[in-house]
Amino acid sequence: MQLCRFNNEQLGLVQGDEVIDVTAALQVLPACRYPLPRHDLFIAHLDAVRDEISRLVAGVADLPRHRLTDLTLLSPIANPGKVIAAPVNYLKHLQEAREDQAIHHQNQIGEIQRVGLFLKATSSVEGASAGVEIARPDRRNDHEIELVAVIGKTGRHIHAADALSHVAGYCVGLDMTVRGPEERSMRKSPDGYTVLGPYLTTADEITNVDDLDLLITVNGEVRQHANTRDLVMKLEELIEFASSFYTLHPGDILMTGTPEGVSQVFPGDHMEAEITHLGRLVVDIHPN
């Protein structure tokens, strides 16, 4: 299934260019009171929601339908407990980061196996329709397209061989970045600098996560074009690595790294980012 959040916190089943409003399926989610859980309820109960969606679609002929392009697309994950990101996880991006002063700012750019992963603020998560407002106009601000995996069940010290069974689904991600001397977590966490979408594609729809094309254009110009086969640490290894440090919960976001070709964007720019089978993020850079 491909599932989107849209407009006023509604849930949609994506079928081609059309979206069926299946918000009623969310009624299967348990009610919660304070203190709220650390995980995303929708992802934690995704199987039950999917069963209810199938029942609704099979039994109700007049469910509201919309054109995908007419909707305000929200982040497919409403409440991620954490956003985990993989730095320099493509060899050619490692090379360009080391060679370009405008990227590294005299920071030491080490291999991912040595420098590890980093966390982004959950307040940086947005959907495609929100667009991006440049957080620091005095700095270079770059786009970085990434494959995003959404964790589906709780796990700690997960073995790579079992890692994909912990994935609920995938989406396209933009890891927007302010260049500068500060730590990555700070420069990549302004509001709206983690763009997710356009929808969640459930894991059963992807047969080979190690062979997905990534493409981003800015104003029609190709900036990044690569394939997940070139990841230094594969998704399974990233999950094993991350879970060796902290427990993964349903709804946690794992950004797998960006390939070479990162470049600056400016107010008024129009970005389109797509990954095989996962749809296309259409994102505008807003004037400040």
How does this model look, in words?
By secondary structure, this protein is an alpha+beta fold. It has two domains: 69 residues, no CATH class; 204 residues, Fumarylacetoacetate hydrolase, domain 2. 17% of the residues lie in helices and 32% in strands. Strands 1, 2, 3, 4, 5, 6, 7, 10, 11, 13 and 16 form an eleven-stranded mixed β-sheet that branches. The longest helix is centred in the first third of the chain and has 14 residues. It is globular. 44% of the residues are buried.
Structural class: alpha+beta
Helical fraction:
10-25%
Number of helices: 7
Number of strands: 19
Strand content: 25-35%
Specify the CATH architecture of the largest domain.
Alpha-Beta Complex
CATH class of the largest domain: Alpha Beta
Alpha-carbon Rg, integer: 18 Å
Secondary-structure element series = EEEHHEEHHHEEEEEEEHEEEHEEEE
Overall number of domains: 2
Contiguous low-pLDDT stretches (5 residues minimum) are none
Q: Give the terminus-to-terminus CA distance.
A: 37 Å
Quaternary structure of the protein: single chain
- Would you identify the CATH H-level superfamily of the largest domain? Fumarylacetoacetase-like, C-terminal domain
Task: Walk me through the topology.
Layout: E1 2-6, E2 10-15, E3 18-21, H1 41-44, H2 46-59, E4 65-67, E5 83-85, H3 91-99, H4 101-104, H5 112-115, E6 118-120, E7 125-127, E8 132-133, E9 141-143, E10 145-151, E11 167-175, E12 177-178, H6 184-187, E13 194-202, E14 213-218, E15 221-227, H7 235-243, E16 253-255, E17 263-264, E18 270-275, E19 279-286
Parallel strand pairs: 5-16, 7-13, 8-19
Antiparallel strand pairs: 1-2, 1-13, 2-3, 3-4, 5-6, 9-12, 9-17, 10-11, 10-16, 11-13, 14-15, 14-18, 18-19
